[in-house]
Amino acid sequence: MKRRPLPLLIVGLVMALILAQCAPAPTPAAQPPAAAPSPTAAPSPTAAPAKKFVIYHVPKAVGIDYFKSAHQGMEEAAKEFGDVELHYEGSINASAEEQIKVLEDIITKKPDALIVSANDPQALVPVLKRAREAGITVVTYDADVLPEARIFFINQATFEGIGKALIDEAANQVGPEAKIAIISTFPTAPNQSRWVEEMQKYMSQAYPKMQLVDIRYGEDDQAKSRQQATDLIAAHPEVQFLIVPTSVGCPGVADALEAAGKVGQIKMTCLATPNGMRAYVKRGTLEAFYLWNVVDLGYLAMYVTHGLLTGEIKPTDKTVKAGRLGEREVGPDNVILLGPPFRFDKNNIDQFNF
Any idea where the Periplasmic binding protein domain is (predicted)? Predict the structure, then answer.
C-alpha cells in the first residue's frame, strides 16, 4: 500500500481550516414576529340618554279627584311609551286668571307639549297661542278652548248625550212633569254652560211639561255648592230634583240634602267620580249619577299628544290609534270623542276605582 506523504496531509488540513474561517455565518431561520402587546381598550363613551318628551298636564285645578284620575291614565300611557317626562301642575283654584299664570310660567320652561283642561274657552286662547308659536304642542281635554288655540280636543262625551242622560234620569225618577233645578260651576265654564244649554233644549223637546225652577253656581267648590243647594231648597220648596253637572259640587249638594233631611223627598243626579260618590249611593242619598271613564280620558289625551310629538299622528288625520282603547274618529274642529256617558249605581259602582 502506497502511503500519502505526511507534509501534503498537513497542508490540506490547514487550508480547510482557513476556508472554514472565511465562510459566511449561516443565516438563522426566520422567526415569526412577536405579537405586539394589546393596547388597553379605551372605555367606550357613555351613550347619550334617549330623548324624553317633556309634557305638562295642566288641569283646571289641582287637588281634585277627577283630574287625579285623568293624570293616572296619562301616567299609564306614558309608561307604555317609555320616553315621556310627565309633569302635573296647576293652580289651587279653578280660575282662568290663575291658570293663565301657571301656563305662562310653564312656557318659559320650553316643554314639548301641554295637555290642558281649560277654565275658560276664550280667556286661555292668547296664552295657548303663544305656546304654539313657541313650538309647543297644545292638546285640550275635558274642557276646550277655541280651536285656533290647540290642535286636538279630547272630549269625554257629546254635550247632547250628557244633557239627554241627565234630563232622562230626572224624568225616570220623578216623572215627565218634574220641577228641577241645576247647581253648576261658573256661568262661563265651557263644559257646564253647554251641558245646561243642551239640557234645556232636550227638556223642551222631550218633556215640555218639565219645569226648570232655578240655576245656581257653586264655583267648582264643594262648600259653596253645599251652601247654594241649601239656599235653593229653602227658596224653592217645590223643587223635586237637582242636577249637578260637576264632580266637585256633587258631594256638597248631597251633603246639603242629608243635612236638610230631604233625602228621598228631593232626588238628585250629577256628573261625578265613583270614589267621590260611593258612600252617598250606598246610603241612598242618590240613586245614580253619570260620568265616563276618566282614566281612559287621560290615557287617550296622552296617546294623541305623544303621537303628535313623534309624527305618528298628524293634525289632519281623520282617525287616531290609542293603545288599548283602539281607534277613535276625529270629528269637526279636530274633536276626538271618548264615548257615551256611563250610568253608575249601587249595582256597579264597586267595579270602579277612580
Answer: 55-312
The average pLDDT across 141-155 equals: 97
Report residue 302 as a C-alpha cell. 296622552
Between CA 180 and CA 133, with CA 337 as vertex, the angle to 5 degrees is 110
Domains of the chain in start order, with CATH, are 53-156+294-338 (3.40.50.2300), 159-291 (3.40.50.2300)
Q: What does pTM read for this prediction?
A: 0.74
Model confidence at 325, pLDDT cuts 50, 70, 90, reads very high
Report the distance separating Cα 188 and Cα 194, nearest Å. Answer: 9
